[in-house]
Amino acid sequence: MKFLVIGSGGREHALCWTLAASPLCEAVFCAPGNAGIARDAECVDIAVGNFDGIVDFARAQAIDLVVVGPEEPLVNGLADALTEAGIKTFGPSAAAARLEGSKGFMKDLCRKYGIPTAEYRRFTEQSEARAYIEEKGAPIVVKTDGLAAGKGVTVARTVDEALQAVDEAMAEGRFGAAGAELVIEEFMEGEELSFFALCDGEDAVPLASAQDHKAAYDGDEGPNTGGMGAYSPAPVCTPEIEARIVDEILNPTMAAMAAEGAPYRGVLFLGLMITRDGPKLIEYNVRFGDPECQVVLMRLMSDLPSALLAACDGVLSTFDLRWYDETALAVVMASKGYPGSYEKGTVIGGLDTAVTDPENVFVFHAGTSTNDDGAVIATGGRVLNVCGMGETVAQARARAYETIDRVDWPNGFYRRDIAWRALERETG
Predict the structure, then answer these.
(1) How many domains does the chain fold into?
(2) Same domain, yes or no, for 24 and 87?
């Protein structure tokens, strides 16, 4: 089979790497890809928003399956365009992708179908949003309704911080149209969990659990990011918790979307808070998480294309997945200044010699390219995902950080405390 992966980040590198290892694989293409992906797939210079170009390329190459990585093209209807052209595609329709594309839609769906989530209100007027915050107090959570590249959420510890988030979104236009409407919701106490499932419109098969780190700096300090590290499995996801997630959130979501006339097909990512009362939904994502995808796929024993095709073909009810027991852990190396402004084009050295244990360590590229001299350069905020596998969390973590120490990139930074919760559990 020939595969086409859409995207250019660490998630897409992990997808290309996993697809390329399948016995079903004849060729993997990636549009547009990056410097690391080029080692595992043939990169083609087509932007993720160029739907006509993607459809034309898929037809010309007789692509058997397109796997859409990022959320934005899914929300904008890429899966619909490919499906209408007769090209098999893994990813939800635009109607189903509203689960991520609109926080307001997501919250209203939860209310309508009794899916446990935080209390909330929707606002299109700045003054009303400010008044609500002053009435409710802090801590409180302010979210843009639309997509904001993982940066549209403010967990405000003070009223002033929440009011500033409202002003930045609605008055200053920091997030463009995505911030024209806000969802303001109660702060939930607990431990976050990333939970994934393959969905075929009727049935859903859980994937491995993961936990990520959103804050930029050690100790969960600093601004919210797209994710600074992750590990799988997440110890907080006990068999009892997983059963509740499936019964109270996953299956009701599948039934709700079918009832709304938008059956969900693709991977569904439940961002959850495990509270004293059990699991509650923070958000839906309509694609693999990044960097969670990297650690989940490193642990996948089953053949990925077979699983994706089963979802596309509506036969997940007969499908089962097998996993390696080891822990996988990813540390994100980001450009200094991220998630704010940062310098582009800085050279990253040492990558060819950084990995000394290729059986247990892999470096997925996120925001990279090559310069005229052939050197790898940083082109994004999140640049590299250094991943380790191990029998324990401590072993996986040590392998990742030992590899990072051999990367020569003065303009990069990273957190040194990835998986601290799991490590505390492991060491007692």
Answers:
(1) 4
(2) yes
